[in-house]
Amino acid sequence: MEKLVIKGPTPLKGEVQINGAKNAAVAILPAALLINGVCTIDNLPDISDVKISCKILEKLGAKIKWNNKNSVTIDATEINTTKAPIDLTSKFRASYYIIGAMLSRKGEIEVGMPGGCQLGARPIDQHIKGFESLGANVTIENGIIHAKADKLKGNPVYMDIVSVGATINVMLSAVLAKGTTTIDNAAKEPHIVDVANFLNTMGADIRGAGTDVIKINGVKELTGNATYSVVPDQIEAGTFMLAAVATKGDLLIKNCITKHLDSITAKIIEVGGIVEDYGDSLRVYCKNRPLKANIKTLPYPGFPTDLQPQIGVVLSLAKGTSIINESIWESRFQYVHELNKMGAKITAQGNTAIFEGVETLSGAPVSATDLRAGAALIIAGMAAKGVTEIYNLEHIDRGYENIEQKFNNIGAKIERIIE
Ligand code: EPU
Predict the structure, then answer these.
(1) Dist. CA 355 → ligand 1 center (Å)
(2) What is the pTM of this model?
(3) Percent of the chain with pLDDT over 70
């Protein structure tokens, strides 16, 4: 068993480079299945979700060549099966993108229900509604999803809720469909724009990504033969921004798109931090104890749910009482129990948590209940007095490249220990 041992407190100081976005990468890799040819994808984060995505592509017949740990060349000319490996697809959420991509490319796919972080119910009804609108027949039996279509036909799709996954999946299925698909009430996250940019670079015709109406004109074939670089990770950048505030540090966060971070910047300013915006980098510092703030998580451009646990650490240390309302996931407050073991005073009920700010946290053994909860506990450990031990690292390793090394380079004292 592996654990992280963190000695705190350590104010973070220095420069950190942001990697490519996990949630863009795990959609762009399956999108490469649409290409009847070769493409190169750069700036991939070196994380387990990316490695598993590549293994799934290989099992379907694609040829994968690693150029270095962050770049891969994929030849998807030959796709020789429509059965995805269940042992791999059950390991993470984004495996559902195989459905949209394979329906579009091969007209059929059989895949297990996706895995991923336990954040409450994670239905895929909107994905299925989209596929069916384009003419696919989708059945789920004994945990296996089977989707089939003779020839997908473009159609209007209205999303009943704003869903990142459903927007991307329907976009993937529409790329090679006959005619035009419009997705109304589409999600607008930066990784949706990134997937559309990747597909357009490879020959697709997608317009409006980043707005709530996306129009996809079906094309006959994607020929690829191009190189694409994944967008910087908004959530990784936000994690470092909030770590700077929680540890009363001073960080220059490089290689980020600062516009993607507006909602986080606004909250950091509200709690008394300073953010200097240089376009592709941000300096974030906070000299004093943070002030209280209220937060509601929302789809982009609102405050992202994927940074809710990390800002929860800041608010647990703030002067006064703060409230977080989680409007995306039904159980994203599991970290509260762990943070309370470190001396935080948080009560969570349903989708609301009340943070009575304390002056200091103290180190304790805790468990990463999901990916972002794990990141939050690392931040808490760096801000707390004493030794924090974090267990269940597989969640953290799914989404952050080299996280302890990156924090250690800017002043943290984190060791990974194999017991
Ligand atoms: N929803 C439905 N039906 C659907 C799809 C979604 O009811 O068919 C609901 C969900 O239950 C949720 C809301 O719609 O309440 C939004 O879910 P969404 O589909 O947007 O989430 P997702 O695509 O499954 C992605 C990220 C998550 C991130 C959410 C929200 C990936 C692989 N995952 O999930 O990232 O929290 O969008 O921004 O892109 C993470 O990185 O830690 C993570 C959990």
Answers:
(1) 25
(2) 0.97
(3) 99
